[in-house]
Amino acid sequence: MNPHVRSRRDLRAQRRPAAHRCWGHLIAAPLWPLYDANLGTLLRTCDAVGACLAVPRRPWADRAVERGNTLRRPSCVHRVAGPQRWLAAERAAGARVVGVELADEAVRLGDLPAARRRTVVVLGHERTGLPPEALEHLDELVEIPMVGTGHSLNVAVAGSLVLYKLAGLL
């Protein structure tokens, strides 16, 4: 096997020339993060799949996004004041709201169809998951199967896997 490894120039030529404006098709919403470092990591994934990031409207969240933005160019970030109110408004406007959580009703990640309309991916707290009051605003749940000893993945990893699947890139 003698593969042709694409150069940075090749990659640049086939991708969009600049950061996207808000397309609104796919939004990652880690609204209850425990570790702020995960926000910057998830922002990088959002750029990779053409998604936006919705974060709590808190000074620490803005600093975390700035610190974690390794792209060094503006990215699409929505600031959310009231998570439940924002989720209710997104759903009322016709968005599909998908929560990432371990639950009996959850669909396995491999069975999750790609997003065909505006979709919000709701991510919870690294230890406690989604708060009960957020569950009423979800259209569906997705779980990421695990065979190891851990109970869950961190928000950045879980969000990245779900975003790639919803973007149709997996």
Automatic annotation (TrEMBL):
GO MF terms held by the record: RNA binding; RNA methyltransferase activity
InterPro entries: Alpha/beta_knot_MTases (IPR029028), rRNA_Methyltransferase (IPR051259), SpoU_MeTrfase (IPR001537), tRNA_m1G_MTases_N (IPR029026)
Pfam family membership, one: SpoU_methylase
Keyword Transferase set for record: yes
BP GO terms, sorted: methylation; RNA processing
Entry keyword annotation includes Methyltransferase: yes
Domain tRNA/rRNA methyltransferase SpoU type: 36-164
Cited SUPFAM superfamilies: alpha/beta knot
UniProtKB keywords: Methyltransferase, Transferase
PANTHER family in the record: OBP33PEP LIKE PROTEIN, RRNA METHYLTRANSFERASE 3
Name of the molecule in the record: RNA methyltransferase
Organism: Spirilliplanes yamanashiensis
Organism placement in taxonomy: Bacteria, Bacillati, Actinomycetota, Actinomycetes, Micromonosporales
